[in-house]
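Handout, section B. The chain below has 295 residues.
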Amino acid sequence: GGAPATSPRLAASGARRYCAWLAGSPGLGQQRVTVASSADGGAVWTAAVAVDDNGANQRDLALGCEGAVAWLAFFDDPQGLPSPSPGVHLCRTTTGGTMWTSATRRSAATSAVADVRTCHDGARVYLVWTRNGALEYVVSVDGGATWPTVATEIRSTDLGFITAPAVACEGERLFAAYVGGGDDLAFSRIGAAGASPEHVTLSAAVEPTGRPSLAARGNYVFVAWRAGDVGSGAGRVRLSTSVDLGLTFTAPAGFGDGTALQDEPVLVADSARLWLGFRDSRGPTPALFYNRSEQ
């Protein structure tokens, strides 16, 4: 209490729960990554602690876990220190959150990093971010203990600056949906370790685009997003589906049968079953709507 708190993140594995957020005023240079953990499904929590403090605002928080192992990735720009330098930093725990390592930089040394994301499948952990408008990733195969020293590019700025990536993974496959240049919704996949990325543009029209959501299960990949301008009320939720691991997608379809502003889609998938929630303004006040399918 007392300090501003934003950007909560939650991760769960078995009975383990981890909650992280940004605490402190960014205007005063006090915004820090803070975390608490639980070993009993969330009944009892550890005290909240700042995982690492290099004297500067931290942002773009991503959280993941596998049992007692958890990792926090975030942008840090240490002030007045020669090392570590600006970029994506990672802290890690192997004790269920009772102790965290010091932050180690995992991206190139640059302040032009944003949109940090993480996903994992077992011990294979991916970190994804944008740097100078391009989309990059690194992968660890031992639960985040060791990482490559150089990131791999997923997508350049050929569509314009990339923003708002959403990521998912299964084994060696990595999937990403993102906005290119503010007007295109695109998808990239990496089919195996060392494979070249493959790209598909999913949006059917050049228009303001945002809030992509991505879910992958087996051969199915689902991508939802908001197409159209929010300020004018033209935004609508769109959905594309792939049944071949993201190689091809259906044409984008309206989802929700609404005639008013729709935004903030969230996907949950179980095999071919899909739940899609979104914010809809068809009533007197905005409300949560959803659609679901059985197959």
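Note. The mean pLDDT is 93. Compare this with the example in section A.
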